[in-house]
Prior knowledge:
Chain A is an alpha+beta fold and about 100 residues long.
Amino acid sequence: MKVLEALSNPYRLKIVGLLSEERKFVSQLAKELNISRPLLYLHLKKLEEVKLIEGSYEISANGKTKRYFELNSFHIPLDERFISRYTSSLTVKRKTDS
Amino acid sequence: MKVLEALSNPYRLKIVGLLSEERKFVSQLAKELNISRPLLYLHLKKLEEVKLIEGSYEISANGKTKRYFELNSFHIPLDERFISRYTSSLTVKRKTDS
DNA sequence: TACACATGTAATATAATTATTACATATGAA
DNA sequence: TTCATATGTAATAATTATATTACATGTGTA
């Protein structure tokens, strides 16, 4: 399940944690996480792909273009029923994906 | 988070799905999943490490030793609060792990 | 004894994920 | 013009995860 894969990495969990406080722009996130931007982009991409976060460009007062990311609120009741419903939907027909 | 990593693989989700119906022994699982036992062991190990499943040996009527695995019921309210509580506990001190 | 069906693991190969390095562009301030 | 701070990506390296192959053991039945 894509969402669970997205949440299976420590950096991505930290990103979610940070963005749950407030939106942040890329360089800012990289600094707070202490990782390089290329690596951060990789993780942001995976989170964005499953719609956990969402980015938008903005030109700040000083003229710099910033790309802000914000968290989309979510709630997944992760238990055996949830999973078996998911796996059943796979082995049978898969109407929708993800 | 170990549990999320354990649940980030399709086979492991299927295993959870199958075991949510009833306990099964190793060869039986391998057949139903259509994977080799060595591969199955790998996945079972990861699920067992995080206590999602639990194995026990049993000698069946016909004398064969079987190792049954059963699912431990679980419920993780996976949302941003859950994650940020987790990540905060990391960056500060980490009383407990997992 | 040979076969079928259980158990398990060590060694290796393959694939996927994660991380780094080296680029390139644009804006405003010094 | 040079520096600092934003943006972004392509190519490669390193590490982990996944998968396969080849073994080995034990029990009951034919």
